[in-house]
What we know:
Blueprint: E1 3-7, E2 11-12, E3 18-25, E4 34-39, E5 46-51, E6 58-60, E7 68-73, E8 78-83, E9 92-98, E10 110-114
Parallel strand pairs: 2-10
Antiparallel strand pairs: 1-3, 3-8, 4-5, 4-9, 5-6, 7-8, 9-10
Amino acid sequence: xxxxxxxxxxxxxxxxxxxxxxxxxxxxxxxxxxxxxxxxxxxxxxxxxxxxxxxxxxxxxxxxxxxxxxxxxxxxxxxxxxxxxxxxxxxxxxxxxxxxxxxxxxxxxxxxxxxx
Length: 116
């Protein structure tokens, strides 16, 4: 079955950097687009970054463009989210999602809290 396990979320200060990781299994990873979505308290799930399966083209939500970077390691079945210049408003639960749909298969999430 599809399994996605996220890690890397911690409490950081504004301006800090962080890298989230996701290990995928149970499906053909190298042909599957992947996404990161987040959900802040009281808000809906939102796709913030996605990466295609082939050439690895990426897309980003406007609020994180230039600060976050999504990448994948096809040999290790992993997806990463490099987060730079973190802001308080980036505080949320972050999920790795199979595919490009916000409500696709996802893991248990990893909490990122940005606070001074």
